[in-house]
Design goal:
single chain; 75 residues; mainly beta; SH3 type barrels; 1 helix
């Protein structure tokens, strides 16, 4: 089952970053997940499969992606 990941999610990873923090914010979604350390602001790209293995828990959730509806323009 695919994990639902949102921009702005704050997650705790299984192993600490060298700065000592376990908490990261999701800053990019796609085949690779971009995360930023909340303590030292270091940015890392992880393949989605590796990110899903490393996540221990969600600290807070970002806003859900807007769904196209009435008034949405087609590209």
């Amino acid at each position: 089952m695919v994990m639902e990941i949102r921009l702005g999610d704050v997650v705790a990873l299984r192993k600490p970053h060298p700065c000592g923090s376990y908490e990261w914010r999701v800053v990019r979604l796609g085949a690779d997940i971009g995360i930023r350390c909340l303590k030292c602001d270091h940015r890392v790209l992880l393949p989605r499969s590796e990110f899903e293995r490393r996540v221990k828990k969600f600290i807070s959730r970002g806003e859900p992606a807007p769904t196209p509806g009435w008034g949405a323009t087609a590209p």
